[in-house]
Amino acid sequence: MYYDQAGKKKSTYNAVLYVDKVEKRIKQKKPMAQSGYVCPVCMKPLMKTDSKYICSGFEDHSCDFEMYSSMYKKEIPDEKLRKMLEQVRSGAISGGTKALISKEEVPTDFSCPYCSTVMKRKDTQIFCKSCDFCFFYRDIGDELMTDEDVENLLAAGKTNVRTGLLSKTNEPYSAIKVLDYDSRKISLKYIQEEVTTSYDCPICQNKMAQSGAMMNCSNEVCGFKLWTIPGQVRMTKKEIDDFFTKHMTEERVMKKKDGGSFTARVAVDFEKRESRFIFNKT
User: What SS3 state is found at 5?
Assistant: First the structure.
């Protein structure tokens, strides 16, 4: 931390100097490392700085896609990050290289619900400059709203239910974004009722419903259920997929109540109509 000539606090940071052969001048960049992810626009490797993911195409000016690596001061988990990158790649979140970070205002395909003016966007902030419908961010919990979500929000006053969101304590929940037309404010509304999922019950093949971290068979007579945080560790989407298709997950490390850990598979208990742990025999 230091103070500039105007007396303002400034944070120090590390950087390296390099020669930009295209612009023919010396520039600086923050230290970067391979991230293991690829750019959703040009498919080149994404580089990781202390706060962003940047397309390696910036070096030859072929691509300038970038995105922040954290939300709400928390690093974006791998599963969520891959989902965001796929949303940009598929066009579910439009904007190409400027889909998530734009240094200047860019026009959108969204119309203001109050004055019908074309709304603008900067980074993930969407706003109208022609009326007092101020602005909102396209986040929904710890994920991002797709273009379809934003259209539904502005036209119908609410998004579809988004499941699989994670709280600050990593507890899963479902929610929607809601527009109050009178106050012109947008808020997050938690959904407590059950939401039907795409998974089939392994006992009776009826659809599974989810409320928070609990999944229950929609057929009350069946009664099959799955707690998606077994051993105090939330199941990934792949693990839930394996559970319902293969009736067993791969081995996973979980937590004991005394703070220790154990390794086991989570499997369908067809007799008790719930899940159970399967331990490797030693």
Answer: coil
H helices of 157-202, in order, are: none
Q: Which helix (H) or strand (E) holds 120?
A: strand 118-122
The one-character DSSP state at 168 is T
> Residue 74 pairs with which residues in a beta bridge?
71
Give the 3-state secondary structure of residue 98.
helix
According to DSSP, residue 60 is labeled G
Residues across the chain: 282
Contacts 24+ apart (CB under 8 A), 270-276: 270/202, 270/203, 273/203, 273/222, 273/223, 273/224, 273/225, 274/224, 274/225, 274/226, 275/226, 275/227, 275/230, 275/243
Encoded tokens for 15: 């950087």
Whether the predicted pLDDT of 272 surpasses 90: yes
- Which has more confidence, 32 or 185? 185
DSSP 176: E
Nearest to 117 by CA among 125, 129, 134: 129
Strand 9-10 relative to strand 2-3: parallel, antiparallel, unpaired?
Answer: antiparallel
What's the mean pLDDT in 11-21? Answer: 64
Q: What span, in angstroms and rounded, lies between the C-alpha atoms of 164 and 229?
A: 12
